[in-house]
Design brief:
The complex is a heterodimer of chains A (498) and B (99). By secondary structure, chain A is α/β, with parallel strands linked by helices. Chain A is built from 17 helices and eleven strands. In chain A, strand 7, helix 10 and strand 8 form a beta-alpha-beta unit. By secondary structure, chain B is mainly α. The chains are: A alpha/beta (498), B mainly alpha (99).
């Protein structure tokens, strides 16, 4: 069993293709692993044992018939509970959707199935993807496998914890302000936010539609690229989906050649407030890239200082509108329908009971920012800042091929530490938010452990829209150099299967 | 400093269709004030002549051919409904007594 689980997704896919291991064997090994460790970790909201084994048998049968299948056919995956799945409940970790079984699959779900991937179950998250610690889940706490007293990041914390605890070789996530890159960074994983519109939002429960982007989690760069490629690409069902070829991310992940590449270090995304060990590992990694032939320059993006503020107006504004669909009428929870109350009263009672504190806070904040009298000062100004941030990126990418920064200001913080302080929690997304506002490609790759606490540090790589391959190219260089020097980082996790 | 009163919060809660209790109104008044004070930074940076961006990509409306295709069956569409009657969503009363 441990032999199968130790393998990366690409290796496992190859072993299944070669007939060295069956998908049923691999799926069973992972389901048993989940049974063994998920009591400690709490990554999964739902495990679909029977559905998974049925899919695995189908992949094995196709192989026996000689049908040509993709590189990830038969490989298990953990799926964030924000994507609709016809054969499993979908809740977005909210009580308002408890027990809801969607009547259709998200495009990302459908593409995983078309690739022959085995969906093990649905992972925990911050309710409606609002948060940076997964503590806003209405159902359960998820723990960081590196230190179970700490957060796994968020909002895709169930996905990051599942992959870091070797409960799945791959996972899906969504990134609206950093919800893939931040959990990947604090769990020692590779996590990518594709170019906005590069992956479909159809069937992805909406938080902030102009920012939401589906992306991959993996234990190495190549695996992340294979998953990225498997579910990305144009979808006619999403009107913001880009009608262009998927960038050559797999080729870039195999290459890792940074000779002659210009790397810009963003001045505004590294300051005295950051944890010293995070800054140290970041600077060492920049030097490493320089030693591999990259040219390093410092770049200033002055508007990034206002990115966090703009984000916490734009995202809640869009959320207040998107979450209006939870009206207690067509699906989900309904409270207080006793025959005496009006639809509006039932709606208000249901939403008050069905939404958690952070979701209510953001709906209220968004309603305020969009209300007449405040619209120009808040939402309008935030949209202008968004323009300035895009201009900063455009100016920077005229001079450099990629921009880099630490992914997060600190390593994983203790569970509970920021739960009562919304502004402190929001700071976790400081470095990741600019790429959501501008829509460009961005990825986090592990760059070592912080000396003071022994926890993983993430290195963020940002590239222009549709140049996602550059982020994988640089990430592959970092991964290869660090693995050659120190061995595999994830293998040092207490929950690693060696 | 952006201060928000309890009554303003109660008004926002009505607009948001959230039946919040007294404790939540008090807590949110303080928290929203803090958050708005912090994010008011956008007003220092934004200036009149900068066009707003609502979106990351310069996309215009995208249309697909207007052709008939199968959607959900009534049974599928109603499967998650809190209450169903005669193959329809049953909802609480929508009109007030006086209407």
């Amino acid at each position: 069993m441990s032999d199968v689980i130790r393998l990366g997704a690409a290796e496992l896919g190859a072993a299944i293709k070669a007939g060295e291991v069956s998908s049923v064997e691999a799926t069973t090994a992972y389901l048993d692993r989940i049974e063994k460790v998920d009591g400690d970790i709490g990554a999964f909201l739902h495990v679909g044992r029977e559905a998974a084994l049925e899919q695995a048998r189908a992949v094995d049968a196709k192989r026996a018939q000689g049908t040509e299948q993709g590189p990830l056919a038969g490989v298990p995956i953990a799926h964030k509970d924000v994507f609709t799945t016809q054969d499993m409940p979908t809740t977005a970790a909210s009580k308002i959707l408890e027990g809801w079984q969607p009547p259709y699959d998200a495009t990302v779900t459908a593409r995983l199935r078309e690739a022959g991937m085995i969906i093990l179950g649905k992972t925990n998250m911050d309710e409606f993807a609002m948060g940076s610690s997964t503590e806003n889940s209405a159902y359960q706490v998820t723990r960081n496998p590196w230190d179970t007293t700490r957060i796994p990041g968020g909002s895709s914390g169930g996905s990051s914890a599942a992959v870091a605890a070797f409960e799945a070789p791959l996972a899906t996530g969504t990134d609206t302000g950093g919800s893939i890159r931040q959990p990947a960074a604090v769990c020692g994983l590779v996590g990518a936010k594709p170019t906005y519109g590069g992956s479909s939002r159809y069937g992805m429960i909406a938080f902030a539609s102009s920012l939401d982007t589906a992306g991959p989690f993996a234990r190495n760069v190549l695996d992340a690229a294979l998953l990225h490629e498997a579910f990305s690409g144009h979808d006619p069902r999403d009107s913001t989906s880009i009608d262009a070829a998927v960038p050559p991310v797999v080729e870039a992940a195999r290459s890792g050649d940074v000779e002659g590449l210009t790397v810009g270090v963003v001045k505004e995304l590294d300051n005295d407030g950051f944890q010293p060990g995070v800054r140290q590992r970041f600077r060492e990694t920049v030097e490493l890239l320089e030693s591999m032939g990259a040219k390093v320059v410092e770049v200033s993006c002055p508007s990034f200082d206002a990115a966090l503020s703009a984000y916490y107006l734009i995202a809640p504004s869009e959320a207040s509108s998107n979450l209006a669909r939870f009206d207690a009428m067509r699906y989900g929870l309904r409270v207080g329908d006793d025959g005496t109350r009006s639809a509006e009263e039932v709606m208000s009672l249901t939403r008050a009971q069905g939404f958690g504190p952070e979701v209510k806070r953001r709906i209220m904040l968004g309603t305020y920012a969009l209300s007449s009298g405040y619209y120009d000062a808040f939402y309008g100004s935030a949209q202008q800042v968004r323009t300035l941030i895009k201009r900063d990126f455009e100016a920077a990418f005229e001079k450099v091929d990629v921009l880099v920064s630490p992914t997060t200001p600190t390593t994983a913080f203790p569970l509970g530490e920021r739960a009562e302080d919304p502004m402190a929690m929001y700071l976790a997304d400081l470095c990741t938010i600019p790429s959501n506002l501008a829509g460009n490609a961005s990825l986090s790759v592990p760059c070592g452990l912080a000396p003071e606490d022994g926890l993983p540090v993430g290195f963020q790589i940002m590239a222009p829209p549709l140049a996602d391959d550059r982020t994988y190219r640089v990430a592959a260089a970092v991964e290869r150099a660090l693995t050659d020097r120190d061995g595999s980082l994830i293998a040092r996790s207490p929950y690693a299967v060696a | 400093m952006t201060a928000i009163t309890r009554d303003e919060v109660a008004h926002l809660a009505r607009l948001s269709r959230l039946a919040l209790d007294e404790g939540e109104l008090e807590t949110l008044a303080a928290q929203l004030g803090d958050i708005l004070t912090a994010v008011a930074k956008v007003q220092e940076v934004a200036q009149g002549d900068i066009p707003p961006s609502s979106h990351a990509l310069p996309l215009t409306n995208v249309y697909r051919p207007d052709e008939a295709r199968n959607g959900l069956t009534p049974e599928q569409a109603l499967a998650g409904a809190p209450a169903v009657e005669d193959q329809r969503f049953r909802v609480p009363r929508i009109l007030g007594e006086e209407e």
